[in-house]
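F.,

This is the one I mentioned.
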């Protein structure tokens, strides 16, 4: 369906260097990470990818193909005043030819992220990084596309959908599915949550909509340390907010993606006298690239060891 979308939307798919990709895990909870999108104009799907050493992004999509891609951070795209775009789609996991995937990723990532070229290891030791360069692709076929012109999350989004009756009515007519209940328990706090509202004035809020598709939007956020809550500044138009599992994802990168930082907070969306908020249950740090190469090695060495073990196990399982 992408060929029929406005050119401004297709340009976002092609030129953004990050998209916030959301899967629904086996517990029915939304999990959102920033990834790089790959898109050919008019194509049937938008592709994202993950390393063999950390395959959860693909395995969750294999178990539940209802996923979402939010295009909300234009850094590095070169587009002025782009819309915010949410794609709810059906995922297909592509790991049949890992060698071909590795070559494709090497070719496409270098073209899309030239700032990372100097960070690639020399060819003669590249095999030591197969946990990263051996890729699993996820093809996301759009089923429904929401567009907030100018990125104004409080304005009513434009809806483009393969189901024409939904386009005409402006409402989702998919049947509701059972949703996971809030996890409950005591809030979990971390010093990085305190960055919300300071270092990160906004972040991506993700929930699972009544039809089972993830729904994400970039919103203003503020850490409320006294109440142990992440306050949501505004209610996104078109987002079916209701108490239940939620994910808040913060990430930042430079124009060339030579460095990037990210983390997510998994928790429960609640409503109180102050409006909507997320009770944090767990903070999860992503695979990050600090500005300093020495810091990158120091921070990621333990993760790299774990990713190598996972990649070895994944290769053995496939054999």
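My design for it:
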């Amino acid at each position: 369906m992408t060929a029929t979308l406005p050119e401004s939307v297709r340009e976002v798919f092609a030129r953004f260097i990050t998209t916030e990709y959301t899967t629904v895990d086996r517990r029915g909870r939304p999990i959102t990470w920033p990834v790089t999108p790959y898109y050919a104009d008019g194509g049937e799907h938008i592709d994202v990818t993950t390393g063999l050493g950390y395959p959860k992004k693909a395995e969750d999509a294999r178990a539940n193909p209802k996923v979402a891609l939010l295009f909300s951070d234009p850094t590095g795209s070169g587009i002025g005043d782009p819309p915010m775009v949410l794609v709810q789609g059906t995922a297909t996991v592509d790991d049949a030819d890992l060698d071909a995937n590795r070559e494709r990723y090497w070719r496409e990532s270098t073209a899309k992220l030239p700032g990372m070229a100097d960070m690639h290891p020399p060819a003669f030791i590249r095999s030591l990084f197969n946990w990263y360069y051996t890729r699993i692709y996820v093809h996301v076929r759009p089923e429904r596309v929401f567009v907030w012109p100018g990125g104004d999350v409080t304005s009513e989004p434009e809806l483009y959908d393969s189901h024409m009756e939904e386009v005409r009515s402006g409402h989702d007519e998919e049947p509701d599915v059972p949703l996971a209940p809030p996890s409950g328990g005591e809030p979990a706090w971390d010093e990085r949550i305190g960055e919300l509202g300071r270092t990160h004035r906004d972040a991506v809020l993700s929930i699972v909509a009544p039809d089972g598709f993830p729904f994400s939007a970039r919103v203003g956020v503020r850490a409320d340390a006294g109440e142990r809550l992440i306050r949501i500044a505004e209610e996104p138009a078109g987002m079916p907010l209701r108490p239940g599992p939620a994910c808040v994802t913060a990430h930042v990168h430079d124009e060339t993606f030579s460095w990037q930082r990210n983390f997510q907070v998994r928790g429960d969306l609640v409503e109180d006298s102050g409006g909507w908020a997320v009770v944090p249950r767990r903070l999860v740090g992503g695979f990050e690239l600090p500005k300093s190469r020495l810091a990158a090695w120091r921070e990621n060495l333990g993760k790299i060891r774990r990713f190598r073990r996972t990649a070895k196990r994944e290769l053995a399982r496939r054999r």
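Confidence is low (pLDDT under 50) at residues 164-170.

Talk soon.
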